[in-house]
Amino acid sequence: MEKIRLDIMGLQASQSPNGTFALVLAEANGNRRLPIIIGMPEAQAIALEMENIISNRPMTHDLFKSFAHEFKFDVEEIVISDLKDGVFFARIVCTGPDGRVEIDARPSDAIAIGLRFKAPIYAIDKIMDEAGIVLTEEESEAIEESAPKEPVRPSRPKSGKESLEDYPLEVLKDLLEEAIEKEDYELAARIRDEIGKRN
């Protein structure tokens, strides 16, 4: 089967209340688009890598990259390989000391990992025939304009005992301002202490 090269066109917030995003992939040499619904953590992982923002502690996809490098594996490409009952499937194609290996993955995780390895993204031609959509120029511009101008931020922590260690420093500073504006001084104190630990 033929593979079609895709580029990330943008992330668009979904209208559903559960905080999902539409990851829109664009055919590199054509006018079809492939929207895939993904969760907030995966959207954040993709956005942070696209913006070259390094989190204070390694995120899951960064850990995968470190693990792969330690064991001399590299990611060659990401392939969106199947569509069953509205669910997309992907493969992470790796090369290592023992040759080529393909690992089953969700497209959102595969793309977040692929970005970290600068690996190209492909879809099987059958996927684009079944799920690809052709957008008008106005619709394409609307998606590009609605893409976040800043990386997708994690949801705001509550005043409970959630860990702030995984939040990048830039996000913590934004959250501190927000907590102060909302007069949530308990949360503001926790965020301030976490920022202080890093200085």
Task: Give the tags.
199 residues, alpha+beta, Bifunctional nuclease domain, 2 domains, eight-stranded mixed β-sheet, globular
Characterization of this structure:
- The chain has helices at 40-50, 60-70, 107-116, 125-131, 137-146, 169-181, 185-198, and strands spanning 3-13, 21-27, 32-38, 74-84, 87-96, 99-105, 121-124, 133-134.
- By secondary structure, it is an alpha+beta fold.
- The protein has 2 domains: 3-146, Bifunctional nuclease domain (Roll); 153-199, no CATH class.
- It has an 8-stranded mixed β-sheet.
- A hairpin with a 2-residue loop joins strand 5 (87-96) and strand 6.
Strands of the widest sheet, in order across it, are 6-5-4-7-1-2-3-8
User: CATH fold name of the largest domain, please?
Assistant: Bifunctional nuclease domain
Oligomer: single chain
Overall structural domain count: 2
Q: What value does the average pLDDT take?
A: 82
Uncertain residue segments: none
| H-E string | EEEHHEEEHEHEHHH
What is the C-level CATH assignment of the largest domain?
Alpha Beta
From the coordinates shown, what is the CATH architecture of the largest domain? Roll
Describe how the helices and strands are arranged.
Elements: E1 3-13, E2 21-27, E3 32-38, H1 40-50, H2 60-70, E4 74-84, E5 87-96, E6 99-105, H3 107-116, E7 121-124, H4 125-131, E8 133-134, H5 137-146, H6 169-181, H7 185-198
Parallel strand pairs: 4-7
Antiparallel strand pairs: 1-2, 1-7, 2-3, 3-8, 4-5, 5-6
Helix pairs in contact: 1-3, 2-3, 6-7
Please sum up the structure shown.
The chain contains seven helices and eight strands; from the N terminus they run E-E-E-H-H-E-E-E-H-E-H-E-H-H-H.
